[in-house]
């Protein structure tokens, strides 16, 4: 999927993409875990595998030094998935560790595969990274 810089950002911020997640996709560091989470959602939608890889902590189960196979895995997922919307439910901000609970509204082959996840982020070298997440039932 490709979008124009003037399109409303896919992270549902109501800002234009160029004033929102594009800044981080272009190399700026996300100041908060929430910003990182939003920009990763949009990166999945736009198949920006390099950004996904760059913002994943080495503790993540998908983390591998085999970048080409990891890139293929990301592509397989992103190109077969529609990223319809993102809703942030809860944010717990810490100095070095933050948690974001969100609902990702996704579709694969006309099937609703939306999920609610509580994600964990760690700050390392002044940069927020996605570590892992647990699926939770909405509202908990
Ligand atoms: Zn955005």
Characterise the protein shown here.
The protein has one domain (17-135): Roll (Nuclear Transport Factor 2, Chain: A). The N and C termini lie far apart (32 Å). The protein is built from 4 helices and 5 strands. The radius of gyration is 14 Å and the shape is globular. The chain has 140 residues and is of the alpha+beta class. A hairpin with a 4-residue loop joins strand 1 (82-92) and strand 2 (97-108). Strands 1, 2, 3, 4 and 5 form a 5-stranded antiparallel beta sheet that branches. The longest helix has 13 residues, at 33-45. The chain has helices spanning 21-25, 33-45, 49-54, 67-79, and strands at 82-92, 97-108, 111-112, 115-124, 127-135. The mean pLDDT is 96. The structure holds zinc ion. Zinc ion is lined by residues 9, 11, 13, 20-21, 38, 42.
Distance between the termini: 32 Å
Tally of structural domains: 1
Sketch the major β-sheet. 5 strands, antiparallel
Mean of residue pLDDT values: 96
User: Rg from C-alpha positions?
Assistant: 14 Å
Task: State the secondary-structure class.
Answer: alpha+beta
The CATH topology is what? Nuclear Transport Factor 2, Chain: A
What key phrases describe this protein's structure?
5 strands, alpha+beta, 140 residues, 26% helix, Nuclear Transport Factor 2, Chain: A, binds zinc ion, single chain
